[in-house]
Write a structure and sequence with these properties.
single chain; alpha+beta; Thiol Ester Dehydrase, Chain A; globular
Length: 152
């Protein structure tokens, strides 16, 4: 797989990298990938999603915890895609969420962009700075830590 192939991940490649499936897959595609250093994940929020039946009827708000999950999934997918270059299979598990802040609500019709940047990585543990944005405005931010495990 060449570096050019890793400039983006369409939904099929995201599904190859992550074990998550509907309704818990929180990223539709990933663009502007720079190895496992940075990327932008895209989530198109639609009114059809099951969380809007109860969060909140009449005033739908995309749950903040799912925004954090989308950030973590984006980071995990780029780590796995990078590791696949070596021919090895890996899994990524969320370890920490730090400095989480929610700035503005997001809802149906919004396009969430998860801006991910590697803070550091040592062998099996990585830490990523993440911001979720809608139309260039930060709606949430956090630092996520993950454990990278080689599949046997």
């Amino acid at each position: 797989m060449s570096d050019k192939e890793l400039s983006s991940l369409d939904i099929n490649r995201v599904l190859e990298c992550l074990p998550h499936r509907y309704p818990f897959l929180m990223v539709d595609k990933i663009v502007e990938i720079d190895g496992d250093n940075s990327a932008i994940g895209i989530k198109n929020i639609t009114f059809n999603e099951p969380m809007f039946q109860g969060h909140f009827p009449g005033a739908p708000v995309f749950p903040g915890v799912l925004i954090i999950e989308g950030m973590a999934q984006t980071a995990g997918a780029i780590v796995i895609a990078e590791e696949q270059k070596s021919g090895q299979k890996h899994s990524v598990f969320l370890l920490t969420i730090d400095k989480a802040k929610f700035r503005k609500p997001a809802g149906p019709g919004d396009v969430l962009e998860y801006h991910i940047k590697k803070a550091h990585r040592r062998r099996t543990v990585g830490r990523y700075e993440a911001r979720a944005m809608v139309n260039g405005v930060v709606v949430a931010e956090a630092e996520v830590g993950a454990m990278i495990v080689r599949d046997e």
